[in-house]
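Follow-up to my earlier ticket, as requested here are the two runs.
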Amino acid sequence: MTGGRFERGLEGDVLEVWRELFLRQKAFADNALAQLDDAGFFGAPSPDVNSVAVIVQHVAGNLVSRWTDFLTTDGEKADRDRDAEFAPPTPTTESRARLMERWEAAWSVLFTALDALRPADMGHTVKIRNKPHTVHAAIARCTDHIAGHVGQIQVLARWHAGSADWKWFTIEPGGSTAFNRAMGGD
């Protein structure tokens, strides 16, 4: 991409596309998170379903582990307690503000590491749980993982907010024709 953060060429374009995908996933999640009150943030529809707070806690832990020293250390850090990420926080054990600080900090770790990558790094091998991945494959794996959790956040947030109060981040149902016309399409 010309004018992007990365150098020209296929590898630079791919890095720019990955960055845009991560930005989009974060924006989808942030839109949903903004529509939740604390009851919706910490509450789960049933005991066997993670709350949004748990998902935020897990995604933050995953991003920090995967993207800290991305090119030089295993993506599963020894000090990460993944199981603890699934312990349901409550407003009395962990404030929403603190969880959101961890969320923002984790995304910052990702974008800092991603922005430091150069096209020449794309063929480099990194490890996740001691399994080798090319940089490109590790980024694809992370994007896939995060997108699944962002989808969960969106579904739970919409369920908590109620359909009538939901503010769509994308084209709302029934709005495709009008959107396409506004964009100059058929």
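Run two:
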Amino acid sequence: MPRIELAPEAGEDFDRILDHLWQHEVANPTARVREIITAINVLGTSPLIGRPVRNDKRALVIGKGSHGYVALYRYVAEVDIVFVLAVRSQREAGFARP
């Protein structure tokens, strides 16, 4: 089972997301962040679930609309580690508004 590691920048992304949710008075922002973490934990059993993107990276789409986020990650099979590189809202990551 792959180990999941967050890049320092991904930790900063969580801080930024949480600050944004607090600033906009979203109901229960910590639950929203927990939803993102729960989705990322799926990579521990299914590291190739995200869609392939450039440079051997993958994008895990989490939720949709105002609850939509994207985790950019790289799975290194040789060491069986998932490196989560960034977490962004889908709108921030360039996804079109429905």
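The only thing I checked on run two: The longest strand covers residues 81-89. Let me know what else you need.
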